[in-house]
Write a structure and sequence with these properties.
By secondary structure, the protein is an alpha+beta fold. It is built from six helices and 15 strands. It is 20% helix and 36% strand. The two termini are 23 Å apart.
Length: 299
């Protein structure tokens, strides 16, 4: 079971986006996981009565959740997704691997924008960073054969108010979560306009066996983390919810319906792993709206 599920915020078009991604990425499917109830909604939610609430995207074995809501939040490149195209999945054929990557790039760039051009870099034979038509950012990378553990890896870029905090943030997450470890760290060889000694241009780490990446931005950014992309944590029981909530929540005004914001600005959703069953109970949606930290026995 995937413990950490990235949640992507969409402005009432999550179902459309899910079908779009299912046509862009290989071995990918999307389906409506849950819908808004038809009553008990807050005033601003009334236009969404009966509409999809969450869309599950199975992206070649990695689950992402698309949240169908209003235009309250907007994703930005502070959290992007590294997509590894491994020649091992294309019979070792580098040309076929590159062709698959290029085809995906061409689809994502349609209506999107380039953040880093699609070229050969020192770290990859083929790499590009694109923000798609929905504002979601993808880093497409051709890896060495057999070297990619995951097709999709969430990547946290620490810029703006979180500039130069990648290392302390990763250390905090690795200490907090179980079965976690720091991987490689590559500091900037020379200072940039905003980096300090020890800032990293790339690092990786694992939480509960899942792969993540982190970096400090090399240039000043006008944005930082936002609820536009949050990380859902599937908890075993109330004790785990309580422990993580206490450790992570750093902005009281951001607490709502299981959502919180940590001291680095990253948004998390701390939820029980049987959330789907709880939400199927009568009146569950209204009860959740009145909670900050989720309390299982109150559903």
């Amino acid at each position: 079971m995937q413990k950490f599920i990235p949640n992507l915020w969409f402005a009432a078009n999550a179902e459309e986006a899910g079908q779009y991604y299912a046509g862009v990425f290989p071995n990918t499917s999307a389906f409506v996981e849950s819908r808004y109830p038809t009553e008990g909604l807050l005033d601003f939610q009334e236009p969404l009565a009966g509409a999809p609430l969450t869309v599950t995207l199975d992206l070649n074995g990695t689950t992402l959740t698309l949240i169908n809501a209003g235009n309250d939040f907007t994703p930005n490149p502070s959290i992007s997704f590294i997509v590894s195209f491994d020649p091992a999945n294309y019979s070792g054929d580098a040309d076929a691997t590159r062709a698959a990557l290029d085809q995906t790039w061409d689809q994502l760039i349609d209506g999107g924008s380039v953040l880093m051009g699609l070229y050969t870099y020192a770290f990859s034979a083929r790499y590009g960073w694109v923000q798609d038509r929905y504002g979601i950012s993808w880093q497409l990378m051709q890896s060495d054969a057999g070297q990619s553990e995951s097709f999709i890896v969430p990547s946290l870029m620490f810029g703006g108010a979180a500039q130069n905090l990648a290392v302390p943030a990763v250390d905090f997450y690795v200490e907090l979560f179980e079965n976690a470890q720091v991987g490689s760290r590559f500091p900037y060889p020379e200072p940039t306009e905003v980096t300090v000694p020890g800032a990293v241009m790339f690092s990786d780490f694992k939480l509960n066996g899942q792969n993540f990446a982190a970096m400090d931005s090399a240039v000043a950014q006008p944005f930082s983390f936002s609820p536009g992309i949050s990380i859902e944590v599937q908890c075993e029981d109330q004790a785990e919810i309580d422990r993580l909530w206490e450790a992570l929540s750093a902005v009281p005004e951001a607490e709502q319906c299981g959502w919180l914001q940590d001291k680095f600005g990253v948004s998390w959703q701390v939820v029980p792993k049987n959330m789907g069953d709880l939400m199927a109970r009568p009146g569950a949606f209204e009860k959740m709206l009145n909670m900050k930290k989720l309390v299982i026995e109150d559903f």
